[in-house]
Design a protein that fits this description.
single chain, about 350 residues, alpha/beta, 12 helices, about 40% helix
Length: about 350
């Protein structure tokens, strides 16, 4: 059995060498695909204090959506290349912990599949069941690994990649005064969407006021942005969402944990280059170089905003009457019109 590295893995290992002792590299597990073995790894920068806010960046959960991994790696590269000269970054890293898992599903990237090498969709693999009616197939199914959105066998443990992601989140991001996760994907649509839980129910989350406050500083700070921030349940419901599972677990622990999913709208790329629709890769990724560069520029800047928000969470997280007001306005903004649509 051979060990073959993906281009993304080669770049990550180069960045780890450039960062030197300022970056911690953790091997979480190994995955076999097509007779080859791939490491599933995490890369950590910043404060070791358990009281520091922490942000996790995740990509490559779906192997077809390479742009998610590329955005995550591009942001990590921007940080590593600033380490030799940027005093402001060093001061920032004294107060925040940054955790990167850019290739959650390296076997799927190697095979060019949405699922992992076992045919399991990692974002349908958690032990969370929707009590609502979910869309056929897309909401998660246990019929066959030969069909998309397969959840895995009933009662089986989570896949190694899913379990590694959960272990990393629980040890690095939960139990702190403030933690966030950003999971980068591409998906059909003409807009970039930022989703927050839940995916399994249209019920509002416990930290709805905090999400609304984040949305307000986002709109005020980036007034020309093109993101749509909303609960995932407004689009569709699913079984087995990893972030629902982790958020529910975090609610039983001290501190605050807000997971967000970035869904980059791939129809924007197809609209400008319709020939992409004839390629599985092109359906989910920009294939023309200047469009990919534009996507990376826009989203790297957005990830930097998220880190700044985490560092300064005490200045915008609402309390008391302000929190009640944010909750009221969030319900009016996202839930008064009903459930998923």
């Amino acid at each position: 059995m051979t060990t073959t590295e993906l281009p993304e893995l080669i770049e990550l290992h180069q960045l780890a060498e450039l960062a030197g002792p300022r970056m911690t590299r953790r091997r979480l597990c190994e995955i076999e695909a097509d007779g080859r073995r791939f490491p599933v790894e995490a890369f950590v920068l910043g404060s070791a204090s358990p009281d520091a806010p922490a942000v996790g960046f995740f990509g490559g959960v779906h192997g077809l959506e390479r742009i998610g991994a590329e955005v995550t790696i591009a942001y990590l590269r921007s940080l590593v290349m600033r380490l030799p000269w940027d005093d402001t970054l060093h001061r920032q890293l004294e107060t925040v912990r940054l955790v990167f898992m850019p290739l959650v599903n390296p076997g799927g990237l190697w095979l060019g599949t949405r699922a992992n090498p076992n045919g399991v969709d990692l974002m349908r693999n958690a032990p969370v069941e929707s009590a609502e009616r979910v869309p056929f197939l897309i909401g998660g199914q246990r019929i066959s690994a030969a069909m998309p959105w397969y959840r895995g066998p009933l009662g089986a443990p989570m896949e190694p990649e899913s379990a590694a992601l959960c272990e990393l989140v629980e040890t690095e991001l939960m139990g702190r005064p403030f933690g966030m996760a950003i999971d980068c994907h591409s998906g059909f649509g003409l807009a970039d969407r930022i989703w927050f839980p839940y995916a399994h129910t249209p019920r509002p989350i416990a930290h709805l006021a905090e999400v609304h406050a984040l949305c307000e500083i986002h709109d005020d700070t980036l007034p020309h942005h093109r993101f749509v921030l909303e609960p995932q349940s407004r689009q569709y419901l699913t079984h087995g969402d990893l972030w629902d599972h982790l958020y529910l677990r975090a609610c039983d622990r001290p501190g605050m944990f807000l997971p967000l999913t970035l869904e980059m709208g791939s129809w924007l790329w197809i609209k400008k280059n319709p020939r992409q629709i004839f390629s599985r890769h092109g359906i989910f990724n920009p294939v023309i170089a200047h469009r990919q560069q534009r996507v990376l520029r826009r989203h790297v800047a957005w990830l930097d905003f998220i880190v700044r928000a985490a560092c300064s969470h005490a200045r915008w997280v609402p309390t008391g009457a302000q929190r009640a007001d944010h909750a009221r306005r969030a319900l009016a903004r996202w839930y008064d019109s009903g459930g998923p649509r």
